Amino acid sequence: MSGNRVKATGVARWSIRHPWWAMGLWLAFVVAASVGGGMFQVQQAEPKEIAVGESREAIELLEQADFEEPPAEIVLITADSAWDDEDAAQAAKEVTERLDDLDEVKEVLPAIGSTETDALLLPITLSGDSDVADEKLDALRAEVDAVAKDYPQLRLETAGEFSLTADIMDMVNEDLGVAGMVSIPLTLGILLLAFGAFMAAGVPLLLALTAVGSATGLWAVASQVIPDNGSAQHLILLIGLAVGVDYSLFYLKREREERQNGASHVDAVAIASATSGRAVLVSGFAVLVSMAGLYLAGDAIFNALATASVLVVAVAVLGSITVLPAVLTKLGRAVDRPRVPLLWRLSNSGGSPKVWPRLLRPALRFPKTTLLLTLVAMAALAWPAMDLELKNSSLDDFPDDTVVAKTYDRVVDAFPEQGNSHQIVVRADADDAGAVRDALTELAADVRDDDLFSAENVVPPSTSDDDTVTKMNLAIPYSDSDPEAKESLDLLRDKLVPDALADVSGAKAVVGGAVAQSYDYVDHQWDKMPLVIGFVMLLTMVMMAVAFRSVVVAVVAALLNTLSALAAFGLLVLVFQKTWATELLDFKSSGAIISWIPLFLFVILFGLSMDYHVFVVSRIREAVAGGMGTKQAIEYGLSRTAGVVSSAAIVMVFVFAVFALLRMVEMKEMGIGLAAAILIDATVVRILLLPSIMALLGRANWWPSKLSRKRPVGDFDTAPAPLAAVERTPAASGFRH
After folding, report:
1. Where in the cell is it found (predicted)?
2. What is the pLDDT of residues 167-212, one digit of tens each?
3. Could you tell me the CATH number of the domain that includes residue 628?
4. Bond into 70 cis (ω within 30)
5. Do 288 and 309 belong together in one domain?
6. CB 584: neighbour CB atoms within 10 A?
7. Whole-structure pTM over 0.70, yes or no?
8. 704 - beta bridge partners?
9. Phi then psi dihedrals of residue 509, to 5 deg
10. What does DSSP say about strands 508-512 and 390-391: parallel, antiparallel, or unpaired?
11. Residue ranges of the alpha helices (H) in 348-504?
């Protein structure tokens, strides 16, 4: 690890010698990133960029033929109680007159009555193109709201694609505010418990918040090239708070420990930079490597998630090895002020740890039994993951009490054809345009009585200006999570469409639409999962092997992290694919997990788990290098890192768990999955699995390095050897204090 030591120590050395410069440069970076990012609007990914497979082909065929439909909206008129046809018709007339006078509206079509219930629908064509349609929405809604005031017995609402998207974004921003208001004071409270002093608690939180702010600004710039999938800003807050606090926590705990051992505050900072600082660098790099694996998935969702994660983790690591040593140098012993008396005594009791050696005793004295029983328990928790089902996020996933869900349900109940549909797109010679339209019209007639389709109000096929591309939508009365939706899609792709176009020579037909996009993306996930997982495991193993000069440490780390992830998957299936927790967590179970969640969780957990593994194993390795026997070094290293690992894990668990309060189901799944995996990793893995495995392996843990052949000074019952020579690395020399 000498290469990492030199790099980390060199940066920290400069920061310690020039603290004001280091803090000034960091402040300038944060301001530049935040202000610069504020000059850009975060770009959202378009359907074409997110779609994969055959559904993407459908979008591309329409674009190639300049088959772009003008942006459309709808106004839905319903009633909570008694319905009056005359009032509804008059309201529709007034809305039409008002909207006809708007420059933002190109055309208002005649009102359509529902055959299912009492409702009217006004189709609206907006002026301009789809890129600016959302900017016209406010003017449209203002006119609709003005009419609604005159008809209190009716409900008038915009309910098209742009309206629902705007409502979702409002909900996302509101949820982000809630997450911030809850997670920040919660994190501060946990840090106060860990340090017992306000200044020490505030430093990690401040670093994390500056990392989040900087990364948010940088993401706004990056989204101009890699568009947002709608979850990136949530992710920056989630990951930024967690890793920013964790990295500072590791650093501060080691610095405080060195001061308690008699080092001056400058030497303590230097020693912390050469030990915990190097661990932060290695673990941060592990997270970056893991997240980079998502680029191999080759789709817009993971490109956005990977880029957002890489940005916030990179900024957090940069702050930990630059401005953090400078801040601690200037604060000196004032970092432990002002103190909270009771919490200070609890967090600084001094002496050797007493609780953690007792917890480690089963794993160290009976490693085989402990390992076997723990593996059985972990396998039982992971077993439900065998039933993992995936689906794309949709409007059906929002809780029933949200504005988006209520509006969407009213539209679909009254006009089923406005819900899910399959889009058939056919490219053929211009001379065959008539034959293609006839074939599709006949297909629609054939499925009219089929329960898999809603073919009563089928819009006739339409053809591009050059007569080469024809399209037709077939509505279905099912959500995309219903098996009938997949059955109807397969029926169209495998039989109905090929049979209908059998007599049209050279015709290329694809079936797209929202349902097709969902299932195509799920298939894409399953196809890419082995590649991404293999890349992440292999590259992080190589990195760990180089960092610790041990192949065994790398393999054990990979296996333990994989086990934690599988246990988290099992818990996700139990919670979100079943219905027992729906009221507790306020979500609708679709019987599946959002398609991008499992792979993303695996990758990010693989990286985050390295935080603890690198930190703990580094301390054990220091003890072994100082002459301790294997079991003694395990007890020493784990006991002295257990407090900081527990504090860091508690921060992560609570920050992640806050996201279970949000309304988007993917945020709930991500929060619960990450919280569960980190909790398992910091307790079961670190207290039972890791020590039992390392105890059984003995000196083989460090193979093929020299430590695997070095004879220990003592065994388990021998008193710990002094580690001053190990811990006071060259980083501590050369400073005047």
Report:
1. Cell membrane
2. 887 887 787 778 778 888 888 888 888 788 888 888 999 999 999 9
3. 1.20.1640
4. no
5. yes
6. 9
7. yes
8. 550
9. -120, 135
10. unpaired
11. 355-365, 367-382, 403-414, 433-446, 483-491, 497-500
